[in-house]
Amino acid sequence: MSQSTDLSWHQNVEENGRQPPLSLQDVHVSYRTRKGSVQAVRGVTLDLQAGESLALIGESGSGKTTLGLGIVRLLVDTAEVSPGKIIYRRDGREVDVLSLADGPMREFRWRDCAMVFQSALNAFNPVLKVWDQVWDTAKAHRWNNREEVRERFLDLLRFVQLDPSRVIDAYAHELSGGMRQRTLLAISLLLDPQILILDEPTTALDILTQRTIIDLLRKLKEDLHFTMLFISHDLAIAAELADRVATMYAGQVVELGPVEDIFYRPRHPYSLGLIRAVPTVTGGFEELSSIPGSPPDLINLPTGCKFHPRCPYASERCSSEEPKLERVGDNHFAACWHTDAVQDDIERNGLRGKKRS
Amino acid sequence: MTPILQLRNVTRYFGSGRDRVTAVDSISLDIEPGEIVCLVGESGCGKSTTGRMIVGLLPPSDGQILYQGQDISAMDKPDYQQYRRAVQIIHQDPYASLNPTQTVRQMIMTPLLRHQSQRSAQNGSGGGRRSRRRDVERRAAELLEIVDLTPVAEFLDKYPHQLSGGQRQRVSVARALTVEPKFIVADEAVSMVDVSIRVSLLNMLSRLKEEFDVTFLFITHDLALAKYFAWEGRITVMYLGRIVEEGPTPRLITDSRHPYTQALLGAVPEADPELAKKKTHIELRSAEIPSLLNLPAGCTFHPRCPYIAEGECDTVVPPLERISEGGSVACPVRMSEPTQII
Ligand SMILES: Nc1ncnc2c1ncn2[C@@H]1O[C@H](COP(=O)(O)OP(=O)(O)OP(=O)(O)O)[C@@H](O)[C@H]1O
Ligand SMILES: Nc1ncnc2c1ncn2[C@@H]1O[C@H](COP(=O)(O)OP(=O)(O)O)[C@@H](O)[C@H]1O
Ligand code: SF4
Ligand code: SF4
Ligand SMILES: [Mg+2]
Ligand SMILES: [Mg+2]
């Protein structure tokens, strides 16, 4: 197999066709446990468009990581993906990811869709030096030209602003958190995947390190037009990097839309609740408010809208009937019976809390 | 008024010989009763070490810590015990600090009973055992209400693993309140709970300040949280064991002077797409944070600082100097330059 030392062929989105590279259709994931079945993902339908970056945001336990792991099929054995379909497209061809055999699945995982994991340390083999791990990965994909692989990896390390000589012969534990995260990013780009899934790419990193990672990811997005799925509980990642945002609650996408719509014209009470709960650092003081209660038990889910026990707009209907995603604007969808009430609230009280000077 | 707490050139080393690191390097800080002070900085800069010294969990290697004007290392036993009760800490990970085999009732009642018997021993006041227990039970319920664990009856018999992260943190706070503290060090107390719940925890802590006159040292790496919690207080910024800037929160947020503070403020990702686009970032000369084992000479920020004055910054440790806009700055080069991040 030969690889160009160009960082990527994503420069021209048109070449990749207009079909979304990834389509999730009614994807469900559940975990078998002693207490019952944990409904971690419940019917997610989503297209990842070529060249876009989509952020999946939501609280801990909302099913973000489960969905990401489901796409690259790295879930634990007790997890089951069913029903649902995951369609992947490249060069005019289409595959059903869930029916791939082990061999093609491994290929898919690095060459088509690479995932950078939530905990960067766990993703490394502790007894291998960085280079050995990279070489193993390349060989596993039948790329046996050592010089070529090394050349490309050095390029990638420089691209993520690491000094190759400090990294290539190091063990993962010898690297700082930020260096580890950047190394992982370089490895994930090795086989030039079409899609990159990044799970909490900045969580637990220091602020200045977060900034370097964000700037780097922005470069991937703006210069190389990578197709990226960001997974994070941190709204700021979405605001900084996403073209579109999907808000997840209790295993479902409850709102989906362009980043400006989600941040400035949210229509789902949960999205609005999140926005009103997060302070910004620049500018004057803003009142914040929290969302009452806590996320539901995924074994015994509430009836109706899963957000109703915490929702300030809930009506009788909400506790019995579950809303589906409906169009509320151009490319903007929300799953809520009372999107009008949310709009009213914003018009009357402003998006965020009152300013104090 | 005497500050409730004073640090005078407090230093803390760890390790010895070539492995010796200076986690906290000669910091001084006065905190007035009822104030809210935030300590911010990146991981490893010495925030928790400072917090642990303040509550008496770790002795300073050098310098003094004064509680209500008295050096804690020179206190007699009763005074020391009183200080240890008055100054409490809430940790980042409530899971690690709560006993997994105790119910909420036990966790709150045990220190209350101990506290009460100590007091009745001191005052010689009697009261039957039974009525004492009833008082304590009533007090436990009150405390759980204060931290918003209501309805109380639902929580009394729960174990830590049956609670969410936010609820566990509320139990830690209620437990700290059993001894009627005057000063609370909250070390990353809300960092591990979900964003949707953070604010209610912060508001609960603010209420303690209002209703019980508790003074707070709020330790966080999150400047946005510091700004929200301490808008009427002060922020102190630490870098590699030293204080580099401090001042009233509004000044520090809108008109910071130290290049490190500016770098932090500029780097914070903003949960607002327009703001995220508009914000200016300071380009540092190096992304790597130096090791405490091998600290740069002079201003420890100099290898990364874009404003470095060669020959000066890399030789002389800049002193923390007052500025007329409020607070102080340890950077003679930039202390008089007003800034704005956007
Ligand atoms: N191996 C497992 N067995 C059983 N339940 C699991 C397992 N892994 C995850 N879950 C449950 O599935 C749900 C979704 O978890 P997931 O890790 O996908 O959430 P997340 O949105 O990524 O959260 P976080 O923000 O904390 O990373 C949670 O309720 C979690 O407890
Ligand atoms: N008990 C200890 N033994 C040795 N080193 C320690 C100990 N506690 C903290 N340190 C070191 O002191 C420095 C400051 O740590 P800490 O106060 O925990 O920072 P922060 O809370 O700002 O992240 C770090 O380099 C840390 O590794
Ligand atoms: S459907 Fe009802 S309960 Fe659900 S989010 Fe909308 S208003 Fe709230
Ligand atoms: S003293 Fe010099 S190196 Fe240090 S922050 Fe100021 S300008 Fe930068
Ligand atoms: Mg996750
Ligand atoms: Mg700490």
Chart the SSEs and their pairings.
The complex is a heterodimer of chains A (357) and B (342).
Chain A: E1 22-33, E2 36-48, E3 53-57, H1 64-71, E4 79-81, E5 85-90, E6 93-96, H2 102-112, E7 113-116, H3 130-140, H4 146-159, H5 164-167, H6 177-189, E8 195-199, H7 207-222, E9 227-232, H8 235-241, E10 244-249, E11 252-258, H9 259-264, H10 269-277, E12 285-286, E13 326-329, E14 332-334, H11 339-349, E15 355-356
Parallel strand pairs in A: 3-9, 3-10, 7-8, 8-9
Antiparallel strand pairs in A: 1-2, 1-4, 1-5, 5-6, 10-11, 11-14, 12-15, 13-14
Chain B: E1 5-14, E2 21-31, E3 36-40, H1 47-54, E4 62-67, E5 70-71, H2 77-86, E6 87-90, H3 94-97, H4 104-123, H5 129-146, H6 152-155, H7 165-177, E7 183-187, H8 195-212, E8 215-220, H9 223-229, E9 234-239, E10 242-248, H10 249-254, H11 259-267, H12 273-278, E11 321-322, E12 328-329
Parallel strand pairs in B: 3-8, 3-9, 6-7, 7-8
Antiparallel strand pairs in B: 1-2, 1-4, 4-5, 9-10, 10-12, 11-12
Helix pairs in contact in B: 4-5, 5-7
The complex binds adenosine-5'-triphosphate, adenosine-5'-diphosphate (ADP), iron/sulfur cluster (2 copies) and magnesium ion (2 copies).
